[in-house]
């Protein structure tokens, strides 16, 4: 379409304006693509803790705690009804109201009022009821505090032993020069001695106490203490894994293999994997500049469905792929290193071993010692038979127990006076009981044996 003189004059004015401010102009299509990306909104600076950092009983430093890093989750979905009467009458979806009821596990299914419900905790096979009054008495009464317990070398605080989903900062109270001087002295002392502080932290009154580590951070613009949550003994999972080297040392890498992996790590260094506006090498995937692809994808789908209710969801935006997979520039840098990895760690097809020797011995075992032809085979003894002296002493089995449920089930199903469906329900109930009352995973193997036995017997009955 031919532009009018007024449109051309307007474009000229806008072009001069952009040139004066050293800016850039974009078409409507380009601007809409940029608008599809949700930008990080500013978070209000909320004080998580305002009090004193206690160093013994004689020294207290006025401080405040703020959240520095925290996992940002997408907006929660609301449950709506598209077929309710309100939705049809109002022409829009209506919010769903959840109503929960409790009933006793008896024949009448008696409803239990909410006021008559208390919490119960398993202690072995028993349920111990705990009322709200008991639960309040169980909690230790404590005031909010941040009390330093001692110091530890920074090497003792491992990254894999930190808890929590956030990192917090401890700063002196603003406009308090004495607190600022004391906090600065503590930060510099920890930094120079390469130590960290270990403190007791209670965020609010009567809250559970936590063990935290205070790490010094000194920047050109600020000084602060980074606070990380430390685990207690019950929080640590102790696992044992076999050694990679093995008894024969066959899995120990050679010098060439180590050099190949070192070359791959150096070539895939993210600190120089990207280029800035001037063409200089810079850091790639910098957290401050990298958007969460999950959040962006959700926002992209919501905006598409809001503007076009009847359309299908769009494909993944190409701009998000640089976060989900390596860039082409990085792949070109590490191509030679990847070739070295293939040479250092060759993949070979493992051929199946010839079992001819075993077959020969097996065939010869069918002959008798005198060579008179095939020997008479002995009758096969079932290995899974449940006959034993203990079974004789047990007597008649009428229900599936938890001591040996597989044997009980097998003995019951062989009887003609028992309903097979009833036996299956008994074994299913026993499996649920084993799983629920198991101490850790001690009873899981027995429950799996019950499941295999139930499946085997059901298949036999179906045929």
Automatic annotation (TrEMBL):
Subcellular location: Nucleus
Gene3D superfamilies, alphabetized: 1.10.1600.10, 2.40.290.10, Ku, C-terminal domain
Pfam families (alphabetical): Ku, Ku_PK_bind
Annotated Gene Ontology cellular component terms: Ku70:Ku80 complex
SMART domains the record matches: Ku78 (SM00559)
Keyword Calcium applies: no
Region span, Disordered: 363-382
Domain of life: Eukaryota
Family of this protein: Belongs to the ku80 family.
Keywords: ATP-binding, DNA damage, DNA recombination, DNA repair, DNA-binding, Helicase, Hydrolase, Nucleotide-binding, Nucleus
Domain spans labelled Ku: 109-247
Record's protein name: X-ray repair cross-complementing protein 5
Molecular functions (GO terms): ATP binding; damaged DNA binding; double-stranded DNA binding; helicase activity; hydrolase activity; telomeric DNA binding
UniProt-listed GO biological process terms: DNA recombination; double-strand break repair via nonhomologous end joining; telomere maintenance
